[in-house]
Amino acid sequence: MTSAYGKIAAGLEDAIAFAGGDEARARVAVIDARAVRAATNLTQDDFARRFRFPLGTVRDWEQRRRQPDAGSATLLKMIAADPAGVERIIAKIG
């Protein structure tokens, strides 16, 4: 029987192990923001404006000072799959 407490405890143990250097227990999804942007043939400034990211955030991702949060990573994956489609959706939502 797996309780909620057991799942939380297991996650905490994994986090502690990862912080201690055990990368085998990590569940970190990383996306290469630079590669996504490069595939669009846009400058950092144009990419940031077109997809409504702060320019400093795009720079931080590309220089690996920060990783995209879950929502941003999802949007980056969508841009990688269909940049024109994402632009159309952004235009619709204003």
| Measured distance between first and last alpha carbons | 48 Å
Helical content band: 55-70%
**Number of strand segments:** 0
**Structural class determined from secondary elements:** mainly alpha
CATH class (first level) name of the largest domain = Mainly Alpha
Provide the low-confidence segments as ranges.
none
The general outline is: elongated
How would you describe this protein?
This protein is mostly helical and 94 residues long. The chain folds into two domains: 1-26; 31-93, lambda repressor-like DNA-binding domains (434 Repressor (Amino-terminal Domain), Orthogonal Bundle). Helix content is 66%, strand content 0%. The protein is built from six helices and no strands. The chain has helices at 4-19, 33-39, 44-51, 55-62, 70-81, 83-93. Helix 2 (33-39) packs parallel to helix 5 (70-81). The longest helix is centred in the N-terminal third of the chain and has 16 residues, at 4-19. The protein is elongated, with a radius of gyration of 17 Å.
Topology:
Blueprint: H1 4-19, H2 33-39, H3 44-51, H4 55-62, H5 70-81, H6 83-93
Helix pairs in contact: 2-5, 5-6
Features:
0% strand, elongated, 434 Repressor (Amino-terminal Domain), 6 helices, single chain, 94 residues, mainly alpha
